[in-house]
Design brief:
By secondary structure, the chain is α/β, with parallel strands linked by helices. The chain has one domain. The chain is built from six helices and eleven strands. A four-stranded mixed sheet has the order 5-8-7-9. Strands 6-11-10 form a three-stranded mixed sheet, with no helix packed on it. A hairpin with a 2-residue loop joins strand 1 and strand 2. The radius of gyration is 18 Å and the shape is globular. It comes from Crossoptilon crossoptilon. This is Hexosyltransferase. It is a single-pass type II membrane protein. Its EC number is 2.4.1.-. One of its GO terms (cellular component) is Golgi membrane.
Length: 229
């Protein structure tokens, strides 16, 4: 589907999967076998020795940026996204043709003036002792974001200067604040899915007409990604 490698509008697309170890240790042996087979066949896996859980996503963010800064010297731009997103690579490449990889760029569905959740039962609960301010810095909502190689290297350095934070999206927003870079809100990124326009009540939100001009839509099931492709 959209994750395939190859040429798109004359630009070479490469793909890597970012993984930690599974939380369910009972199936670890089978998982390791499958990972080895995938890695040997496609050489497209980055695997780190920490459990792949929600609160470890910040570690994944840091390790990926450090890896990219060290080994991806010829990369112009990076799209980083979740597994449950639909991405229109052609639209992204068209958008990037107007930008210079040597200049700062960070694009996504940017969330402004979000407040820390103080409710203990919430998945996103953050106590005041961890974050005392009332507002988070601007950050890209989950699903995916786009950045230049220039920004990638700056964020890699900033990750070592900003205190770890358990919500990866917010942590990256803190890193953007550290390097004094304002992220760009783009209407082509739909973090919370597609809202049916009132002028077209007959259309379904899974209609291709909603997707042809977008860049990223979150979230879709695997079968839906295949069908949309």
């Amino acid at each position: 589907t959209w994750g395939r490698e190859g040429l798109v509008n004359g630009e070479q697309i490469l793909r890597v999967f970012l993984l930690g170890t599974p939380k369910n240790r009972t199936s670890l042996a089978t998982w390791e076998t499958l990972m080895q087979q995938e890695s040997q066949a496609y050489r497209d896996i980055l695997l780190w020795d920490f459990m792949d859980t929600f609160f470890n996503l910040t570690l994944k963010e840091i390790h990926f940026l450090n890896w990219a800064a060290e080994f991806c010297h010829n990369v112009k731009f990076i799209f980083k996204g979740d597994a449950d997103v639909f991405v229109n690579i052609e639209n992204i490449v068209d958008f990037l043709e107007r930008h210079n990889p040597a200049e700062d760029l960070f694009v996504g569905d940017i969330i402004y003036n979000a407040r820390p959740i103080r409710t203990r039962k919430s998945k996103y609960y953050i106590p005041e002792t961890m974050y005392g301010l009332s507002i988070y810095p601007a950050y890209a909502g989950g699903g995916g974001f786009l950045l230049s190689s220039c920004t990638m290297r700056k964020l890699s350095r900033a990750c070592g200067e900003v205190e770890l934070f358990p919500i990866d999206d917010v942590f990256l927003g803190m890193c953007l604040q550290r390097i004094s870079l304002k992220p760009i809100l783009h209407e082509g990124f739909k973090t919370f899915g597609i809202v049916k326009p009132s002028a077209a009540p007959h259309l379904q939100t899974f209609d291709p007409c909603f997707y042809k001009d977008l860049m990223v839509v979150h979230s879709l099931k695997v079968a839906e990604i295949w069908l949309m492709w």
